[in-house]
Amino acid sequence: MVELHGKVAFVTGAAGRKGIGRAIAVRLAERGASVAVNDLRPSESRRQGLEDVLSEIEGLGARSLAVYGDIADGAQVERMFAQVVNHLGQLDIMVNNAAAPSGPDRVPLVDLQEEHFDRVQRVNVRGTYLCCRAAARQMLAQGEGGRIINISSVIGKHGVALYAAYAASKFAIRGLTQSLAHELGPDNITVNAICPGLTESERVDDLAHQLHPSNIATGVFRKEIFERAIRESSLKRVGKTSDIADAAAFLASDYASYITGQSLVVDGGHIMD
Q1: What share of the chain in percent tops pLDDT 70?
Q2: Against a cut of 0.85, is the pTM above it?
Q3: Is 1 inside a domain boundary?
Q4: Fewest beta carbons less than 10 Å away: which of 51, 133, 145, 230?
Q5: Which residues carry out catalysis?
């Protein structure tokens, strides 16, 4: 059993009712960690806010904190990290999960508008960089090592049509992960990425809404997405948020103390390398 008692974790992008961020936050709390969770305020996001996940974490007997803010804004990031440390005392585990939702960037590159490309990079790349920097500074100041876990994607391993902006951002996260692993290794801070495949969450609903052909209903197209993923998976099922949460808990634990700079694919055996 992975044990994280006495550790403090910070998970960004955790407000989704069926999201990966929420699943990771709850799993870390189940393993004994105190957990701070982040997202935009409900007025700034289609999500429901952090109250439900906060209640779930506290129901497990773990300390928790909701930290609202934009991870791509440097001043807000500094404020959020100060809140986490002031309230929970330290930072041992950083999970950079927040990402731009599916939107008008899911088009052929020749039709991709600059503002839509920039929007994805702002959240996925700039936001991850700012949070990595803040987490690394805090962990170095503490002098006790740490774990940084960045959520990339299988599309950060191989690009696909209509995903140019997203793929560019997720490839960038893997490069950031590797560079930072080299820099922080001497201080016993590991930096790894998780590359989920298709995972049953709200993001699939957004994806189906964005990409469904005009002659196919969103619900039908969503079902087709899952059926195709099942056919291409060696394990013949779609990923669950708990699969990603288990991988994050492992990388956050002492069991993974000699693993750094890696991109762990969690996709049921679709991509193998």
Answers
A1: 93
A2: yes
A3: no
A4: 51
A5: 166, 170
